[in-house]
Amino acid sequence: MVTLQIEQNKKYNRLINILAIAIPAVVALLLGIRQKIDLGTWTTYLPHINAIINSMTAILLLAGLYFIKQKNVSAHRTTMLLAFTLGSLFLVSYVLYHLSNESTPFGGQGMVRPVYYFLLVSHIILSVVVVWFVLRAVYFALSGQITKHKAVVRWAYPIWLYVSITGVVVYFMIAPYYQH
What we know:
Low-confidence stretches: none
Order of helices and strands: HHHHH
């Protein structure tokens, strides 16, 4: 039985490691495509939808923390799985937008410019890093490995919350420069 558990852990660890590398690599590859695909004008609304998704994710993350502090494991599980689902939906929406629309240059000047780029760069870097942590956190929770879940969440949670919040802040900073 213990051997089976170890083998299962190895299998899932391998899958998580592959996904944690493949997801950002595929996104970067897709974003690197210069020729845009015409998916229709509806895609111009995706940045606004993405900001809503990121806002909802941040709220769910905060609610998940509240629920677990209240020892309401069921509500915690539900909110965190919803946050994970929204994160996955965000990823699809983000890729669709960038496959079909040119990137929007930031037009801000003065001190707001370095603030914007600091937030953007830290958001992007941490959004790549957080994939591995979140996948592990979800796996450990769903497989009942709560001690390991708690250990990885110490890193996953603040990074994920930062990425969600800075995604919204960056959106509001660049939103005036979107072409419609």
